[in-house]
Amino acid sequence: MPPPPPNSQPLQQRILALAKTLQFGWFIGHLTLLFCALRYFLSYITFNWNSKWATFSYRTAFVSAAATYGIVVYKNFRAQKRLGGKGGIMQLISEENAQYLLMALVWLISLQIPLAIVPFSVYSIFHVATYTRTNLIPTFQPPVASGTTPDGKATYKQHPISDMISKFVKGYYERSMVLVAILEIAVWFRCVLSAFIFTKGSWILLIIYTVFLRARFSQSAFIQNAFHQLTAAVDAQVNAQGIPPVVKQAWVSVKNYAKIFHDSTDLRKYVGGAAQPPRKAQ
User: Fold this and answer.
1) Alpha helix (H) ranges present in the chain?
2) Angle at which helices 245-264 and 221-238 pack, to 10 degrees?
3) Would you state the pLDDT for residue 264?
4) How far apart are CA 122 and CA 124, in angstroms?
5) CA pair distance 236, 44, nearest whole angstrom
6) pLDDT for residue 63
7) What is the CB-side half-sphere exposure of residue 104 using CA atoms within 13 A?
8) How far apart are CA 270 and CA 121, in angstroms?
């Protein structure tokens, strides 16, 4: 993330310089997503999810999500080109931000599933908070020098709100990523339900989301842990006394087919070599 404008500039110039950056557009996208998500869920809890405002808020949220992830993908692609990178389409879609970009576009044109907005919203909360701490607050209220280090470098006192945001991010980030992992798995089961009742376009959506979730599984330790915990919970229930053998055998078959699917869809076979360390979704 680029630093805020120099403190020596007048406030108006600092604001203009900040607003001209691509990263500011990224921030506005995440902020818009949060407002639209809030507006949509207000409609949802008041049983007006089919109203024009609710539909507009839902679609605009995913337009904003596509814009923000598109900015990050563009910047990463441009950086790779400057470094002489020659990654193809498989290398591009193996990046986490590209996957969220594609999924946002899919949700934009698919049937409305309210749960699908929540993972994007959780990410946006942390992105908006971090950008506010590192860019907005220093632009409006530059840090004040508070002393020097033993080697003579100046130290600065951060704004109290910056300290609060920093503590919030450090305290809740990992727990929120666990929540995102659970929600993304829950969305898959919601897609399965839509497919079973033959909702229009639901089978295509299920296939696309399954591919997305498989990619997330290969990159996210949180997704992996969530699946392992889910598997262990079902194992405990299935192996309990009184469960018919046919149920146990069906569960074993499900796990075997899941393993076959996992092994046959390993992106590392197509990208080449060991998996790259995943970029954090932005």
Assistant:
1) 11-19, 22-45, 52-82, 89-93, 96-109, 117-131, 137-140, 160-196, 202-219, 221-238, 245-264, 268-271
2) 160
3) 81
4) 5
5) 35
6) 97
7) 26
8) 31
- Mean pLDDT on 79-91: 69
CB 217 within 8 A of CB 227: yes
The tokens describing 122, both together, are: 């959780």
pLDDT at 268 exceeding the cut of 90: no
d(CA 62, CA 36): 9
Q: What are the structure tokens assigned to 135, written together?
A: 């860019």
pLDDT value of residue 88: 60
User: HEC profile for 8-26?
Assistant: CCCHHHHHHHHHCCHHHHH
Of the candidates 59, 125, 104, the residue with the CA atom closest to the CA atom of residue 212:
104
Angle at 209 between CA 206 and CA 212, to 5 degrees: 155
Q: Give 3-state DSSP helix, strand, coil % of the chain, rounded to 5.
A: 75, 5, 25
The Cα–Cα gap between 275 and 267 comes to 8
Compute how many other C-beta atoms are within 10 angstroms of the C-beta atom of residue 198.
Answer: 8
Q: Report whether pLDDT(30) > 70.
A: yes
The answer to whether the Cα torsion of 50, 56, 57, 62 is positive or negative is: positive
Q: In this structure, are residues 216 and 99 in contact, taking their beta carbons and an 8 Å threshold? A: yes
